[in-house]
């Protein structure tokens, strides 16, 4: 009997989704499946719920939510034999989109039922994991404003981006790629495991979840017109035409940001204060089992 443990974030997206204990228990034949369902009640609660779920040793833990909920659940599943399932009911749903998991909940449940599995790479920033992407610099400040807006949709994200880009002062980043040490004033530094940020937008369209590399994008200090060009290139998915953005494939890197004691980061679309200005980033190849279509 396959044991499926569902963790639902009822606030994901605009909260208007149809996934709940009843729909799940109606969908799965409870003679063939052991089903548990729990709901996160506050930010980060899904981490505790996953730890509780792991004690029951289920076959699959299914994150029902967006990239933030997936991050909380999957953080505890790295290097375990328990598979991650995804029912994408978030706003951006970047990782699910990269994996071609449909937003229709019944179709997504069918993918869990089919139980086809692969392994994907996982990114690590200091002592936490990321599965989709992370960013330093203005990227983190945009996410803070987006979260505080209380509205999780593409328009709020665009508004937060415009607002932050008006006043943001680029910081000096010291970082190294291989033996190459760099010191640059950057608008942001973005690292992605997946080829989509959410809302069908991508800064790293060629990124792969299983190539053993993270895709690094650095964007230097820009004047007003270059910021405008960059913004439009991102929205129309033509980032490759913006030559000031530099792209590299990396396995690991260290970054420190000058004159900052508490560096802030965007990790899988959520705002984090890192309590340090020294940041280590690395990849754990093929270390998460995940159910895919
Ligand atoms: N009951 C709850 N009330 C409020 N926030 C919650 C609750 N449960 C979880 N959260 C928090 O909600 C945040 C956002 O969740 P999630 O990422 O699933 O949705 P989303 O932001 O709409 O989707 P996406 O990240 O794909 O854009 C997470 O940081 C999570 O910790």
What does it look like?
The structure is a single chain. The protein is α+β, with helices and mostly antiparallel strands and 293 residues long. It folds into 2 domains: 2-115, Rossmann fold, CATH 3.40.50.10330; 128-284, Tumour Suppressor Smad4, CATH 2.60.200. Helix content is 27%, strand content 35%. The protein has helices at residues 21-27, 45-55, 67-74, 94-98, 105-114, 138-148, 154-167, 224-235, and strands spanning 2-8, 33-39, 60-65, 83-88, 117-125, 128-130, 133-137, 171-177, 180-192, 214-220, 246-250, 252-257, 264-267, 270-273, 278-291. Strands 5, 6, 7, 8, 9, 10, 11, 12, 13, 14 and 15 form an 11-stranded antiparallel sheet that branches. The protein has a 4-stranded parallel sheet with strand order 2-1-3-4, sandwiched between helices. Strand 5 (117-125) and strand 6 form a beta hairpin. Helix 6 crosses helix 7 (154-167). The longest helix has 14 residues, at 154-167. The relative contact order is 0.17. Residues 9-13, 40-45, 65-69, 72, 90-93, 152, 198, 269-270 line the site of adenosine-5'-triphosphate.
Secondary structure layout plus pairing:
Blueprint lengths: L1 E7 L12 H7 L5 E7 L5 H11 L4 E6 L1 H8 L8 E6 L5 H5 L6 H10 L2 E9 L2 E3 L2 E5 H11 L5 H14 L3 E7 L2 E13 L21 E7 L3 H12 L10 E5 L1 E6 L6 E4 L2 E4 L4 E14 L2
Parallel strand pairs: 1-2, 1-3, 3-4
Antiparallel strand pairs: 5-6, 5-15, 7-9, 7-13, 8-9, 8-12, 9-10, 10-11, 12-15, 13-14
The chain binds adenosine-5'-triphosphate (ATP).
Adenosine-5'-triphosphate binds next to helix 3.
